[in-house]
Amino acid sequence: MTTSTASGKIILFGEHAVVYGRPAIAAPVSQLRATAAITDAPAGSGCVLFAQDIGEEVHLSTAAADHPLALALRLALEEAGIEKEPNWRIVLTSDISIASGLGSGAAISAALVRAALTHAGQPARPETVSRLVFRSEEYFHGTPSGIDNTVIAYERPVWFVKGQPPERFGVGHPFTLAIADSGLPSPTKETVGDVRRGWEADPAEYESRFSRVADIVHGARRAIRDGNFVAIGQLMNINQQQLEAIGVSSPALEKLIAAARGAGARGAKLSGGGRGGNVIALVDDKSAAAVEGALRAAGAKGVILTTISHR
Ligand code: MEV
What we know:
The protein is α+β, with helices and mostly antiparallel strands and 311 residues long. The chain folds into two domains: 2-160, Ribosomal Protein S5, domain 2; 170-308, GHMP kinase, C-terminal domain (Alpha-Beta Plaits), CATH 3.30.70. Helix content is 41%, strand content 23%. It has nine helices and ten strands. Strands 1, 2, 3, 4, 5 and 6 form a six-stranded mixed β-sheet that branches. A four-stranded antiparallel β-sheet has the order 8-9-7-10. The chain starts with a strand and ends with a strand.
C-alpha cells in the first residue's frame, strides 16, 4: 500500500490580486491534511477512486474527461509513463473543509498525484506535483494563479508571483494566526469569476486596487522579515479593505474579523477566495484564547492556530 498526504493552506496577503500578476504570501496549514491510499487490486478490476468524505466512487475508465480527481490521476499516470489503466483501489480522505479557502481541492489532488507517482515507482518532486495539480486546478476554477498548488506541493511558506518559481521569505520572529471557519462554503471559482467580471467592466479601477495590494504585500514581506507584528496586523487590515472594495468579503466574514480585532488581534482579514470560508487573525500568547473565544461567539464553526516560522 502507498499512502501520501498533502496539507491545507492559507493566503496571508495578496489573494485575487495574485491572479493579475501581483505577488502574494501563503503558508501551509500542516495540521489539516488530505490523504490518498493506493492498494493493488485483482487483475481486471481497473482503477477505482473512493472519495470517502463526499461518498463518491469514480471509475477511471468511465469518468468524464474533466472530472477533477480522474483528471489529476490521469495526469499522474501519464507523467509516470503508465499507458494501460492500472488495477488500483484508491481511497481519498480529507479533513479540510470543501470550498473554505483552505485549498481542499488542491490538497486532495496533491495527495492523489503524490501517491500515484510513488506507487508507480516515480519520484514525487514538489515541482512535478505542483505542475500536475495546477493543470487539474484549471478545471476547478478557470484562471488559477498557481499559488494553491505551489504552497501545498512545496509545503512551506512562499512568496509567489504567477509564472515564477516560489521564493522563500525571511521570518524575523515566528508569529501565530488564528484561522476561523465561517462554515459558509464559497467555491473559489465563483469569486474569481466575479472579480474577473468587475475587472472587465472597470479595468483601471481594479488594476489600481491590485497595485495597492502589491504595495501591501511588499510591506508585509518587510514586516515579517523584521518581526514587526504591529505592521503585519495593520497590513492585514488594509488588505482586507481592498478585498471588501472588490466585493469578495461578506457580512459573515466581517463579523468574525470585527470580533477578532475587538478581542485583541493585531489584524484580521479573509483568506483565500472569500465571501465564505475562513478568516485569519494575528494573535500572540496573551490574546490567543480571547480571540478564539470571540471568534466562536461570533459564529465560527472551528478555530485552529498555526505558527508561521522559518522552515
Ligand atoms: C485562492 O486560494 C487564491 C485566489 O487568489 C485564486 C488564485 O490565486 O488562483 C483567490
